Each structure stands twice: as structure tokens, then as C-alpha cells.
């Protein structure tokens, strides 16, 4: 490996390609160490490019075996080839055919980019720039080609051969043990959407008839024996296909749609045209091995990849700066799908928790970047929460601003105008502007400005005039620049319920804050109101308003907006945690009146509503995470103080609500019943049962241990079993060690379940966790070559164990750093991702942050870092 001088690629330097490739004929002869790829490319000069320019094809670790132009071998001085590129100095100035033969070694490919083998299955990952690891190519998203792929392999090794598009000829190769299959994809696509699979796989299948009457064969392929665990994913595919038609008018466009699950995969899944390839974590599920969260994630990721068929594949991105164009939009689409399949309010709260945990912290640290970055050194480092999650919030804001009808018309126009093209954010906004007649140029600031905006609100009530005046002021961390266009969904709430009051500037409950500050006046307000701001989290901002706990608890009781009811309880809890953490109280066990009032309000809420909506109640009971509290504090953070403060509040809640929590557990257990069903209502009941047990165990660890042990042995599903184990894992002692060991043995052959077990142990907030991780690293199921294992054991430690990762002696940072360095030689992409756990290091109190700084600087001095890691390191230390 070499340290590459990171070359910065800039949006402003974009130029169309000098050449286009209309057709690609690929012939791949699969073999474990010596795969031969012959690419026949129909190339022509691009009228929009520079005439007579050399043809510069990308490559990465390729061996060139043969090269012909229009059937003729090229003289040595006509081209230059290296593993990372092939240049024709003077290509024909007319259409021509280039035939390139390359050799690759899929077994040696531990980067999991390009063609590799996962548990013996050949598969590919080409986004963002993996196709160049298969053959020399114009590996950029604005070069769209029609692909025909012939795949040949040993019949025994790879009885299943899959490609993009529709299946064509197939057969055996006479006098050999090999066979082949041809696939043709009629839809022009960029190289990053190319895929193939070859291996021993089981298949579960069904059919779907589209709104246009196309009969589609839908199948999910998994490793042998895992077929029964693919049923839920298959069902999710069919529901996604139906939803995209009814909710968005988008039908499927090929005769087959295939999903393949593999066990080694860098990300969640990939939307290759007609052949989605998945991390098996997002396909395989049964009640014995998958939790309710797993089921929900599978549904969401299946939908996400399927929806890319329109938002990403039919309309793709002109360049990688436009990544949010497909990712933000597709996340928005999968969120809407999940909301329609489940509880909208509960789902929205989940989305916002994720956004705050991942994106707000990214946006507050050294890795902050605009939703549309302007420069990058390594594009694989930009598959971030900002591009995905904040990108989705931007689309949501467009819908809030325009209303559902104009939004739908804008989407239809965007798809119609850009079908078969590589588009930009400007094309996207233009479609909405055209349909709504609105000028969205100021709104476009959301794509350009990094950092989470802050909106400060203040209200004055004039009882005599029955008037309420609300002022709002926005500010961005990046200071200067024009104000953003911020949709503020809002309403007023009084002591006994919602207040109807007139304010012409809030049509349909949405005010658009366009200036740095503005003031709204509500007339006819008969009682002192509490404003309910940013209902449904109408914009990705931090809201500051000087409300008292009593006012917030009024919102919890009476707001019509479920999101803000939840938010109200969160805000009270956050203040209680911060007060305690700020005082750095070591023995802060006594509750105090504010905590009493909070617990009393939650008690009343549970009495009135918990049985009617257990999923929502579980969310209201869950306190903000330690990470969220740390972000809120923002500087000089002592993770131990935050941890203690939060634990104290949990213990207090458990003690105050104990009787109620026990009766709720009983009532819900009866309702939960058998057999297991992963539907949202059943999952909601389980969520509340387990949240209740968690609080009971905080209040009374002995009783909690007994109840958790009982649940662990009686559980009929992984959700209840894992929840019980998680509670035991937090309570030091013999019961914990016995339970962990038994679980580890029971699932010794289930890597996805062991991941949960790894993660649970890695997040125990105790000094012994480092030794535990060291032992688990030599567990037979752990492997540095498998991204899921690394994420489960090491990633969870970095992200989910703030007191131990940021230990004052630096040992937690050192563990992470060592893993990053070792992993960088195997899989730089995952190493770089792991390194992002250092993103908040400057926020820590000086002793801890200087330890982190030292360790990062030492890593930077190493001679042979990958571009991926060097890029994250440079930005983290900047
Ligand atoms: N487009 C995929 C994400 C993805 C990106 C890069 C990958 O390469 C390692 C893999 C997947 C999605 O949004 O699902
Ligand atoms: Zn995506």
C-alpha cells in the first residue's frame, strides 16, 4: 500500500466527458484467482467534450492482457497502460470499438469493491468507483451505456449466474464443467450500477404485475439453507413495488427483479439495476434470530434500494457532488413508505433520533460538510448522515413548503424531464419551481451551507389585548451568508388543550421564516399559550426557547402533534440530565422537585395512554442518549458525568413509576400473545414491555435480574431475548456472565446474532470492557475481513460506549486507533468509517481531548495510510 497524495476533486471543475460509451459487451470468465474480463466498448467522441482529446480510462489494480481498436492491435506508442489507467493518446475522431482484456483476482479482493468473493459467492460492488477494478472504463456517473453481460463459471461452483436487466441465453459449455448465462439491460446506466453474482444460492420467489401490466419475476437469493429467512424481505419487495405505484406513480421496468444477500458487504445494500445486492443483515430474518428493529430495517432498506430504480437509476447523478440527489430523495421515499406501513408518528420520532444522533453530531464536528459538498479527496467518505439524512430532510421541507399536490407534480416533472439522464440538484429544484411557481433559489442554501441552524424563539402574551407575539431568529454556525428558508410548522397550546388563534402568516399551520428574524402576532388568544414549534420536526434545526418544565409538560399533555409531545418530554429530561452533568454531582441520587414533576407527568401520561399506543409510550419513556446530551453540552464534555447524570434520572424514573411499569408489563404480556408477529403493533407492545423492564432493573437491580432471567428463558423471539440480555449485561455479577456465555454458545453458528452479542458486550460502560473486547477479538466468529463483525465489536464501542471509548487514560482511543490501522490494510473503506468515531474529540474536556489528539497525530505520522483513512484523519485533525 502507498500513501496517495490526496487529490482534491472540485465541483467547479466539472466538465463533460470527452468520450461517450454507448454499448458495453462484457464477457466474464469467473475463476477464484484468475478471472478474465473482456470488455467490448462502443465509443464515440462526445459532441459536448473536447474534440481530439485523448481517451483516458480509469482502472484500479488491473492487469491488462489484451487491447484492440476496431479489431486491430494497437502499436505500443499509441497507448499507455498501468494498473490504474489506460490512455489512448490519439483515439479515432469517429465512433470506434475498443476491446480490452483484463485479469483480476476476486479472492484476494478484501476491499469488497469491484468483483470479490463472499463466502465463496462471486459478487460485485461498483458504487462509487468499483467498476474500474473490473475493467478499464470511463467510470463516472454521467457516462451511460447499454450493457450486455455474459457470465461464465464452473457449474458446481456457481450454479446461479445473475446480471443486470433481463435474462437471455444460457447453457453449458460442451466438454467442460462450466456454464454461462447472458443478461441484457436495455436501460442505459452508469457503470456504478453494474452488477453480477455467481454462486450456490437458494431462491425464494414470487410474481408481481405492474400497473402497466408487466409480469415481473421477483426473487430473493440467499446462502444455501437460509431460504426460509428470506420470506419477509421478499414480501417487503412486493409491498415496495406496490407502494411506488400507488403513492408515486412509479412502475417497475424490467421482467425480473432480483435481490441477493451476501455476508461480506461494506454498506447496507446496493441498488444495481434489476440486481440489488444486500448485506445479509438487511435480508435475513426469522423470530428466532431477528429483532423487531431488524425487521423494520429490512423493510426500510429493501424499499430504499427498490425505490432507487427511479430515484437514482432511471434518473441518475451527473457527478458525485450530486449524491444527495439520489440518496436524500430515496431516504425520503423509504421514510414515507415505512410511515405508511407503520405508525407515522412513531416512525418520525425514530427518524429524528437518528438524525440528531448521527447528523447533528457530524455537522457540529470537524467532518461537517454541505449536503452537496463542493470538494472531496475520497468520494467513499461522503456516504454520510449529512448527504443521506439531512438530504432527506431537505426534500421533506420542499413538500412542507409546497404542499402535497404541488410536491407530487414537481416529482412527476422531475422524473419525466430527467428520465435516462444524469441530473443535478438544480434540475431537481427547477421541477418544483416550475410546478409551484415559487422561486426556490434562496431555499437552495440548504444544499450549500454546513452546520445545524439554530432558531431562537421568544413569546410575549398580552392578556388584556388577548394577543400573543412570537419572535423567531435564525443563525447558522458558519455565520455570514444569506438566511435560510425555514418552514416552521407551529400552533399554540393552552392549559386545557389546543388554542385556535388567528395569524394570517401561518396558513395551514406553517410559517416560512425567510429573514434572519421575524415576528408573528396571534389575535384572539384567550389564555396564556405555549407555542408548539417545528411540529413534526418541520426543519432540521436546533430550537431554543426559554420554556419552563411546566409549559413543556403542558405540550406533552395537550399538543395535537405527537412529535412535539414526545419532544416536550425529551426536552425536560435533557434539562434534568444537563443540570446534573453540569454540576458534576457524583452522588446525585436524590431526585429534587423538577425530577419528581417530570416523573409524575410521565405517570399520568402512562395511565391515560400507554395501553392505547405502547410504541409511542416506549419512546416517551426513553431518555435522550448520552451522545445527544454531550452534543447539547457542546464543549468541555466529561462523559462520566453525563453517564452518571442520565443513570440517576433513569433510576429515579424506575423508582417513581415502578408499580405502573409492572402492571403495564403484565397487561401487555397478555395482549402480546403468541405466535410471534413482526407487525408494528406487536413490536410496539414488546418495546414498552422491555422499556419498562429496563427502568425496573435500574430501580431494583436484584428484581430486575430475576425478571430479565425469567424473560430470557421464556422468550419466544429475539426481541425479548436480546432486551433481557441487554438488561443483564448492565448489571455486574454472575448472572450476567452466565447469561452472556449461554447466549454465545446457543448462537455460535449465527454470525448475525453474534453481532448483537458482540455489540452488547462492547457497550458495557465499565472499565473491564476493554479486556472483554480483546478476548472477543479472538473469538472464532470474529474476522477483520467481515465489515459486520468489525462494526458490531469495534464500531459499537466507538459509537455506543462514550465513557469507555473516551476513557481518561486514552486506552479506549488506542483500541480504536489500533483497529483502524490494522483494518486499513484489509479494507480501507471500513477503516475510514471506523475512524469517524473520533469526530467529536474536540468537544471533550482537555485531558481526554489531548489524549485523542495525540493518538490521531501519531496515526497521521504513519507512512502507509490509505487515501480513505488519510482523508478522514486530515479533516478530523484540521
Ligand atoms: N447506494 C447505496 C449505498 C452504497 C454506497 C457505496 C457502496 O460501496 C461500498 C455500497 C452501497 C445505497 O444508498 O443504498
Ligand atoms: Zn441509497
Structure, explained:
With 878 residues, the chain is an alpha+beta fold. The chain is 42% helix and 21% strand. The protein has 26 helices and 33 strands. The strands form 9 sheets. It has an 8-stranded mixed sheet, with no helix packed on it. The chain has a 5-stranded mixed sheet with strand order 17-18-19-21-20, covered by helices on one side. Helix 17 (718-729) packs parallel to helix 19 (751-762) and helix 24 runs parallel beside helix 26 (867-877). Residues 97-193 form the Aminopeptidase N-like N-terminal domain. Its cofactor is Zn(2+). One of its GO terms (molecular function) is zinc ion binding.
Which descriptors would you attach to this protein?
single chain; 878 residues; alpha+beta; eight-stranded mixed beta sheet; 26 helices; globular; binds O-methyl-L-tyrosine; binds zinc ion
- Taken as a percent bin, the fraction of beta residues is 15-25%
Number of helices: 26
Give the overall shape: globular
Q: Going across the biggest sheet, name each strand in turn.
A: 6-5-9-3-2-12-15-14
Summarize this, please?
The protein is an alpha+beta fold and 878 residues long.
List the helices and strands and how they pair.
Layout: E1 9-10, E2 19-29, E3 35-45, E4 55-58, E5 63-69, E6 72-73, E7 79-82, E8 85-88, E9 96-104, E10 114-118, E11 121-125, E12 145-154, E13 160-163, E14 166-172, E15 178-189, E16 196-199, E17 202-209, E18 215-222, H1 231-248, E19 256-262, E20 269-270, E21 275-279, H2 292-307, E22 316-317, H3 323-341, H4 344-364, E23 375-376, H5 385-402, H6 404-418, E24 422-423, H7 425-436, H8 445-448, E25 454-462, E26 467-475, E27 486-489, E28 491-494, E29 497-499, E30 510-513, E31 517-523, E32 530-532, E33 542-545, H9 549-558, H10 562-583, H11 593-609, H12 614-621, H13 626-633, H14 639-672, H15 680-699, H16 701-714, H17 718-729, H18 734-746, H19 751-762, H20 769-777, H21 787-800, H22 802-805, H23 811-824, H24 828-835, H25 846-860, H26 867-877
Parallel strand pairs: 2-12, 18-19, 19-21, 22-24, 25-33
Antiparallel strand pairs: 1-23, 2-3, 3-9, 4-8, 5-6, 5-9, 7-8, 10-11, 11-16, 12-15, 13-16, 14-15, 17-18, 20-21, 25-26, 26-31, 27-30, 28-29, 28-32
Helix pairs in contact: 1-2, 2-3, 3-4, 3-5, 4-5, 5-6, 6-7, 9-10, 9-11, 10-11, 10-12, 10-14, 11-12, 11-14, 12-15, 14-15, 15-16, 15-17, 16-17, 17-19, 19-21, 21-23, 23-24, 23-25, 24-26, 25-26
The structure holds O-methyl-L-tyrosine and zinc ion.
Residues 125, 127, 266-271, 304-305, 327, 383 line the site of O-methyl-L-tyrosine.
